[in-house]
Amino acid sequence: MIAPTDMRLKANQEKAVKKEAEKKEAEVRHVAPLPTSLFLSHNEALVPPYRVIVDTNFINLSLENRIDVVKGMMDSLYAKAIPCISDCVIAELEKLGQKYRLALRVARDPRFERLPCSHKGTYADDCIVERVNSHRCYIVATCDRALRRRLRKVPGVPLMYISKKRYAIERLPDQALG
To answer: Comparing C-alpha atoms, which of 171, 167, 89, 170 is closest to residue 128?
Structure first.
């Protein structure tokens, strides 16, 4: 004989599903607060001189396309730009070996600002996303499609990439460019 409260009965299974749905609906949803520097989708914290976080593949493609990093950034932003490189990007370039020694030398240029990392591991993409989420005062320079897709979800962060042997910028407000 099966007890009337046995979960193998269809009516009891439907009750359990309904109870789970009600419980999920009653849950409190937390939305991360937006920083006060964002006005609609415009980031008011972005002012010249711009601080640009540079990714590993951006340096490599800049060298392939024979673009000077600092000069190219000034040409595309119409203002002074300070390229910033995190310790994770330097470590990633060191891991790549002899083939990328020129990119490593460019990354160690004294015009570039070094950003120390306090987390474990050397995965540069996670480091950049984490840094941009905590401080929205950066432009991110990368040609990595997966990283750009992740960064588009963060409101108020402009992206710089290489297109037609020039630097192109995406999502920078018009009033910042002129």
So the answer is: 89
